[in-house]
Each structure stands twice: as C-alpha cells, then as structure tokens.
Specification:
16 strands, 5-stranded antiparallel beta sheet, alpha+beta, about 300 residues
C-alpha cells in the first residue's frame, strides 16, 4: 500500500492546473461498492444462463451490462472537458474561514459534480453549463499557505463508477493575524473624534438647518436668525509600533491587526513599524491592505527567514 505522502505526490502529478480543460488522460474511473455489486450480479446471471441454458438470464445479464456501459460513458463525459478556476477569498483572518470559490465551466449541462478539499466539500450542478462551488476552508495560523489539492468527482447518473480528477494550484492563501482588541486600548477607538462637535461660531441660517442648531437666543436679542457652526477635529496621524506592544510576537501582531482595522474605520492616517519593515503613513483601503499584508508575512526573530 502506498503511504499518504506517496499518494499525495501521485495525485499532484496527475492534477490539472486551474483554467485547463480536463483531458482524457487526467480523468480516472473508479468503481463504487454499488458498481461492484452490479458487476457481481451480471456475472452471476451470466453463469446461471450458461449453466442452465436460460435465455431469460442471458437477456437480463446482457441488458444490465449494456445499462452499465452506457452509465459508465455518461459518467466519464460528465467531467470530460470541464474547466475549473479558483476565486481566492478577499481576506482571511486566523481562526476564521477562507471562502474559496471553485468556478466550473463545462460548455454544456453537467450534473452532480462534487468538489472536495481535505476539510471541506461542496456539490453543484451546471444546468446552464457553468456554476460555482463554495468551499469553507478553516483558516489556520497567520501567514502564507499553499492551497490544498482539490478533488473533482461525479458518480452521475447511476453511481456505478466515480469519475475523479484532481486540481492543483500554485497560488497561496494569505491569512491575516487574528484581531485582538486590548482591554485598555492605547489608541483611539474607531470613529472617536471625527464627529463635528467642536463649536466654531455662528453663521447665517440656511433653509434645511436643524432647529436644534439654530441660535434662538441670538435671534431674540438681534432679530437675526443664525445657526451654530461646528468644526471637525483633525484626524490622528500616528504610528503603530511593534515594539510598543506587549506579549509574544503573535500577540503583538494580533494587537496591531486590531489597531489597523480600528484606525482604518476611523479614517485616521497611520503608519506601521515592524522590525525590519516600515510602512509609511497613509490612509484608505490600500493602506489597510498593505498593513495587513505586512503583518501576515512578518517573520519574528528566531523563525526561519525571520528578522535577526
């Protein structure tokens, strides 16, 4: 018997790349228990017919054999030429789920196609020739992880055999640190300080002003209706520093991840300092993505490839 590692290597050699139509030489037919029982029944009927010269047994065995042959061909054609491509999740945090999309394009109707990963599976039919299966993969530790080997299979229409093929991708799944919110946060919480709450003076009232913001006392004294004007405090511009956090490396990265999310939501301008890595101050979705990517790929000192 082959070991698990040997089987994995063989399956990877037999796998196709995403976006490649499934060829004949990469498609395998494996009998099911039901199919083996069907074959035994056909053989027994044939032996019974030969032994007793029973035409009914002959006819039934030949009919069952013909049905099996047609079913085998239909199962084989159900996967032949199928094109599978992958849609990576937008973002994944450690301890959560990575929603990996497997987009299937068959060019014609396909039925009961199953997609299997080591810890997830999904089934989809393609009545219009295309569709998508969604795999919920458990996200492990922070960092870059190779995508698992995927198995495509179908036992349609009768379940006598399974058509099996493998899909291997060179892409990696980037897992961000798990956000860890501090009990006593040292940074401003999301949204604080961004509301227009600082009184800046009076201005002439305009249609549509809220009655709560009208200066009624001023109007009673001068007869001129004015509205209160408020200013928005300036946004924070700060640095998120690895050395300023407490705990082991993974705890520090989790704290920094939570701070990045909070400051992004608050609209702050922030930068990131890690040992050997400095991300200039910025804001917006691009800054958030770059900061989370830096946290995911950071290797602490003492790990292979880590900062010395």
């Amino acid at each position: 018997m082959l070991s698990r590692a040997s089987r994995q290597r063989w399956w990877r050699r037999a796998a196709i790349a995403p976006g490649t139509p499934l060829p004949q030489r990469r498609l395998f037919l494996l009998p099911t228990r039901f199919g083996l029982g069907w074959a035994v029944l056909v053989l027994l009927l044939l032996l019974f017919g030969i032994n007793y010269q029973n035409s009914l047994a002959y006819g039934l065995s030949f009919w069952l054999f013909a049905v099996a042959a047609v079913a085998l061909l239909r199962t084989w054609r159900n996967l032949l030429g199928l094109r599978a491509s992958l849609r990576l999740p937008a973002e994944t945090f450690a301890g959560g789920e990575a929603r990996l999309g497997v987009m299937l394009d068959g060019g014609r109707a396909r039925h009961a196609i199953e997609v299997h990963a080591p810890e997830a599976s999904a089934s989809v039919s393609l009545p219009e020739g295309h569709g998508e299966a969604d795999l919920a993969l458990p996200a492990g530790a922070r960092g870059e992880h190779p995508l698992p080997l995927l198995r495509l299979e179908s036992a349609w229409p009768l379940g006598l055999v399974r058509a099996v093929a493998w899909l291997a991708s060179d892409e990696t799944l980037l897992v961000y640190p798990r956000p860890l919110v501090e009990e006593i946060p040292e940074h401003r919480q999301a949204g604080a300080g961004l509301e227009a709450t600082d009184f800046a003076g009076l201005r002439r009232a305009e249609p549509g002003d809220s009655p709560a913001r009208l200066a009624w006392k001023q109007w009673s004294r001068t007869g001129v209706l004015a509205a209160k004007a408020f200013s928005v405090p300036p946004r924070q511009q700060l640095w998120l520093d690895y050395d300023a956090c407490r705990g082991d490396p993974e705890t520090r990265l989790s704290i920094l991840c939570a701070r990045v999310l909070a400051h992004h939501q608050a609209g702050d301008r922030y930068g990131l300092r890690l040992p050997g890595v400095t991300l200039a101050q910025g804001e917006g979705a691009a800054q958030r993505r770059q900061a989370l990517t830096a946290l995911a790929r950071f290797r602490p000192a003492g790990t292979p490839g880590g900062v010395r």
